[in-house]
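Thread amino acids onto this structure.
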């Protein structure tokens, strides 16, 4: 059983291949085929695409649905395949298929009508809807554009095995055309696209060519020269309308059947054969291409090739080369390539990477594993007969464009000019090695265009596939899907390795971050300790300075004190007993005539400055420090003796 991730990839691939947008419908079809992608695709795509389910397995038939086909194979009856076609369902399990919705865009003259029906409806149901929209009786309508041959009103749409989106057109040959001005009708014809089915008579090969109504007959013939190598002046045509008398006429006024017209072209038996001789030899041939051939009959004598006379070394529809020769900047060359490709084949084409091949490698291979893609290199060659069909029918198919845009980085290069070819081979040798470059160098012109599928690896870039131009849409899609399977397996390994590497790196980053935070914390702690120590040292210094200052003041006061009088002094002596806050006492005798400031100086000399301490008397209790220090001890009544207390000021 496929894992959920595998099923998501299978579902995306299935929707890209089949165009089924409804997810429930797509899942139902995949479950009916046990999530077998190839079986589910074979069960949905039309049988004429060349993929059938046989009773005993899957058989791939390369039918004539795409590109140039053999006339004989187109004319011969195709073996019946409706009996062999079946849905693959798991054994012992039948899942009822839900109705599938089909979208039709129906064109009638200047109108487009969108019709949505279940595949169980009939062709007649479409006509009834159109009858109400267009106001045209259903019996008068011819509904054209079916890919199968026999379709009538009772045909069930499911039996036609149609894709989801379809384009049809209505013809009403029994009704007169609407009245309008000639200029309006002409302008409408110029804007229409004509499908010319050109059969190359000698090789019995058909080419389906799209031209706008403004293209000229001469442009058609030059384009056919590019496909058949028959110079315009040697082309012998059948099927042109009688009104197409001049090669300068546009297809809109030439009388061609719209939207499809069949023509046959062959080579004139003699290069100098005139138009009148050709008409005599073949009465059913309408037009022989002279295109002023007589004027250029002997051009080869002057070294001028047949194709060069009309500038058709490339297709006539190609107004300018895909890429300038000797372009200095690859990005500018790719811009011109993309613009020219759009002008030739329309806007529905792969999105080409604009930049150098190295930049394309960087975009595809060197991002995160989940974002990586395969690199598709498209090598164009204007001189290959396969280029026009490959570009218009394969490379511009919506399924291919969608699949490439989702899974690939697409880079392109033009190999037509020898200088550009040599430049790419040099790039190829540098990036892929000489073997791959030699493989491309040996490819013949008719094997172009080439489609290289590149997968990036750790040590080198690997070329998974080289797809040549002679392929079909189904084969191209299968080879792209096969490359995607190889890439997906490698991508899953890369994602696993990348996740493990990221997990290891995350652990390492977390450890480094934790270590950094630890270092920061240690540094902050160390700085805080250093700041604290510095602050303590500063405070200690201040304290020491203050103590030194106080000690100096104390010593100064102690030295300035008058000598203590003797006990037997004849003068009046006051004896003071002073008690410190710690309970100690010290005594001293003072002359009664001494000023109170002398007592204050004495107390300060003992370490108790009067600015910080107050001196209190006992009876009565008083603050001696509030008294006038210039008065004598006798005047302040501290005579003949007194006991005082020291108390710190608040």
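Threaded sequence (650 positions):
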């Amino acid at each position: 059983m496929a894992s959920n991730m595998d099923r998501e990839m299978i579902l995306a691939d299935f929707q890209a291949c089949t165009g089924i947008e409804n997810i429930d419908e797509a899942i139902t079809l995949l479950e009916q085929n046990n999530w077998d992608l190839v079986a589910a695709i074979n069960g949905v795509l039309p049988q004429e695409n060349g993929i059938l389910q046989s009773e005993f397995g899957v058989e791939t038939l390369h039918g004539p649905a795409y590109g140039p086909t053999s006339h004989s194979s187109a004319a011969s009856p195709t073996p019946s395949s409706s009996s062999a076609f079946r849905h693959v369902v798991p054994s012992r399990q039948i899942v009822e298929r839900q109705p599938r919705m089909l979208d039709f865009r129906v064109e009638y003259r200047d109108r487009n009508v969108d019709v949505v029906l279940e595949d169980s409806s009939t062709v007649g149901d479409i006509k009834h809807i159109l009858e109400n929209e267009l106001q045209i009786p259903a019996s008068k309508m011819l509904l054209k554009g079916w890919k199968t041959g026999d379709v009538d009103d009772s045909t069930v749409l499911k039996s036609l095995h149609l894709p989801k989106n379809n384009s049809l057109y209505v013809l009403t040959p029994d009704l007169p055309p609407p009245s309008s001005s000639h200029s309006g009708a002409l302008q409408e014809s110029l804007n229409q696209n004509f499908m010319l089915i050109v059969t190359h008579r000698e090789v019995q090969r058909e080419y389906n060519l799209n031209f706008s109504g403004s293209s000229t007959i001469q442009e058609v013939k030059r384009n056919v020269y590019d496909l058949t190598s028959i110079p315009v002046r040697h082309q012998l045509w059948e099927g042109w309308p009688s009104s197409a008398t001049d090669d300068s006429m546009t297809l809109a006024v030439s009388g061609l059947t719209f939207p499809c017209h069949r023509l046959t072209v062959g080579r004139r038996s003699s290069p100098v054969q005139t138009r009148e001789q050709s008409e005599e030899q073949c009465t059913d041939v309408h037009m022989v291409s002279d295109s002023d051939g007589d004027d250029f009959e002997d051009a080869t004598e002057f070294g001028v090739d047949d194709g060069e006379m009309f500038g058709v070394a490339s297709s006539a529809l190609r107004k300018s080369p895909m890429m300038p020769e000797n372009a200095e900047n690859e990005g500018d060359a790719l811009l011109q390539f993309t613009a020219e490709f759009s002008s030739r084949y329309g806007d529905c084409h792969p999105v080409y990477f604009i930049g150098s091949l190295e930049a394309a490698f960087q975009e595809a291979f060197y991002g995160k594993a989940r974002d990586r893609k395969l690199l598709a290199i498209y090598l164009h060659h204007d001189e290959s007969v396969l280029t026009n069909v490959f570009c218009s029918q394969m490379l511009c198919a919506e399924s291919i464009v969608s699949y490439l845009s989702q899974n690939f980085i697409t880079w392109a290069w033009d190999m037509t000019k020898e200088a550009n070819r040599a430049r790419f081979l040099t790039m190829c040798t540098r990036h892929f090695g000489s073997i791959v470059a030699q493989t491309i160098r040996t490819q013949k012109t008719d094997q172009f265009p080439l489609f290289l599928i590149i997968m990036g690896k750790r040590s080198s870039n690997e070329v998974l596939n080289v797809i040549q131009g002679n392929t079909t849409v189904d084969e191209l899609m299968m080879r792209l899907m096969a490359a995607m399977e190889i890439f997906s397996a490698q991508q899953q390994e890369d994602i696993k390795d990348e996740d493990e590497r990221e997990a290891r790196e995350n652990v390492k980053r977390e450890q480094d971050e934790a270590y950094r935070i630890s270092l920061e914390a240690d540094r902050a702690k160390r700085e805080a300790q250093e700041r604290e120590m510095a602050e303590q040292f500063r405070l200690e210094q201040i304290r020491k300075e203050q103590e030194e200052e106080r000690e100096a003041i104390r010593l100064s006061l102690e030295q300035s004190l008058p000598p203590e009088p003797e006990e037997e002094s004849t003068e009046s002596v006051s004896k003071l007993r002073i008690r410190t806050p710690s309970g100690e006492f010290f005594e001293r005798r003072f002359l009664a005539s001494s000023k109170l400031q002398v007592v204050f100086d004495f107390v300060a000399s003992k370490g108790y400055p009067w600015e910080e301490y107050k001196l209190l008397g006992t009876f009565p209790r008083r603050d001696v420090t509030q008294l006038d220090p210039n008065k004598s001890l006798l005047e302040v009544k501290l005579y003949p003796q007194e006991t005082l207390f020291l108390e710190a000021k608040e």
